[in-house]
Amino acid sequence: MRRVFALVIAAGLVTAMAIPGTALARADFTQYTGVETQIGGGPIFDGVDLTKPVVQFELESVFEDVTTDARTTGTTYVSGKLSVKDMATFSGTMHGTSVTVVTGNGYDGTWEGTWQGKLINGVGFFKAVAQGTGDLAGLNMEATFTGTVPGGPVNMEGRILDPHGS
Question: Taking Cα atoms as reference points, which of 60, 131, 126, 146 lies closest to residue 100?
């Protein structure tokens, strides 16, 4: 019985190595860094009740991203919600969606994704994940952002994952 099990495992490994896109496929990661600068929008103050314990803001912002990888350099449109739990220190949580438009530099596509994070004394700490479209189709991106909110600039570190079809 042990020999049969060992043969089944060995046959499975040989098959996995022979078929592209199987469990043994290897992904490539490309690291990048950059700076994101707000060029438009921000928190929407209309209808905000500053007397409540948690103040809710809507966000509609535009950022210019300049990075060490042309595939992540472009204009980012951000939508989301900001929940400030302490107005004195401007601390709370945030989440939302974003679209980064990449044109020129040999690429034409977008990164479409989600982000979430927190504010501590007006400094934001965020994580984002996104999927590529156009020339970036099939790629995934993840990044962390740190900087003063709103206004920035915000520093970013990230990586692009090329899963090679897996």
Answer: 131
